[in-house]
Design goal:
Keywords: Membrane, Transmembrane, Transmembrane helix. Pfam families: Rce1-like. It is a single chain. The mean pLDDT is about 90. The protein has one domain. It is built from eight helices and two strands, in the order αααβααααβα.
């Protein structure tokens, strides 16, 4: 039953750390009247500062349980080049979606903003997104928790169960925030749950065909920044990178999400299928 204990430990670490990180931002704002960027720094520091060392410690127990420690772990710096793979894939899929929508007349791109209007905010948000969201979530969910599940289940069941754990982390933190009187960081509804279900599957499949958590970190980060600075940038006080007109309200969001997540799943399945065919044929 050790794999269950490891799963509970990893899941609890993510839930507790995410709640404490969000709480630290609220406390710093109320007690010290800190700026938004200072809150971002504190939240990212707390989240990664708690999750990453604990998950790396738990990984040692996963390796003892499985009896196998890879020469180059999925989180190794030697696999850092796959970070670019994830960033480029998400960017290419989102760009393809806008190109197709533009050719069909669904979206009309009206203007491109110069970098001096948004680059500073983008850079700050990249640092926040890495340490508060992409790095700790990928280490915990697509990394340690998946490997603990994989010791007990097939790859596809492990992908499914990891995705359900991903959803449960978000829901649990939102419920705890509501119970203690904080505003939940996300609005839990059926659309959001379906979104993170598909997103979790996409990210896990990316890890499977590249063998690197850095791919999922890169893809996760690029997805967040595209959504925040291209599709829905209003909350960051800067103009969007692209100004476009939609034939139907919300179409840009739908196309971006669909192309990046569904496209990422399709690309991953095609590559995994091709690799499996090549192995069988040889």
């Amino acid at each position: 039953m050790k794999w269950i204990s490891l799963m509970l430990a990893g899941w609890s670490t993510l839930v507790a750390s995410l709640f404490l990180a969000s709480l630290s931002g609220e406390v710093s704002a109320q007690l010290f009247d800190s700026s938004r960027y200072s809150q971002y720094f504190i939240q990212g520091l707390v989240m990664s500062g708690l999750v990453v060392p604990i998950i790396l410690y738990l990984y040692k127990h996963v390796y003892r349980m499985t009896g196998v420690k890879p020469k180059v772990p999925v989180y190794s710096w030697k696999r850092l080049n796959h970070f670019i793979t994830g960033v480029l894939l998400a960017t290419a899929l989102a760009s393809l979606g806008f190109i197709i929508a533009s050719l069909q007349g669904w979206i009309v791109i009206e203007d491109w903003q110069t970098p001096d209007q948004w680059f500073g905010a983008l850079l700050i948000n990249i640092l926040f997104a890495i340490f508060y969201e992409a790095l700790p979530e990928e280490f915990g969910l697509r990394g340690m928790l998946y490997d603990a599940l994989r010791h007990r289940f097939s790859a596809w069941l492990s992908v499914l169960f990891q995705t359900l754990l991903f959803v449960s982390v978000t829901v649990a933190v939102a419920l705890i925030q509501a119970l203690v009187g904080l505003t939940p960081g996300v609005s839990i509804n059926i659309f959001y749950i379906m979104l993170i279900l598909c997103f979790g599957i996409c990210l896990q499949l990316l890890r499977l065909w590249t063998g690197s958590l850095w791919t999922t970190i890169g893809f996760h980060l690029a997805y967040l920044e595209i959504m925040r600075f291209v599709v829905s940038p209003n909350q960051y006080g800067v103009p969007p990178i692209i100004i476009y007109h939609e034939s139907v309200p919300g179409l840009g969001v739908l196309i971006s999400i669909g192309m990046m997540i569904i496209g990422g799943i399709i690309v991953s399945l095609v590559i995994l299928g091709a690799k499996r065919f090549i192995r069988k044929s040889t």
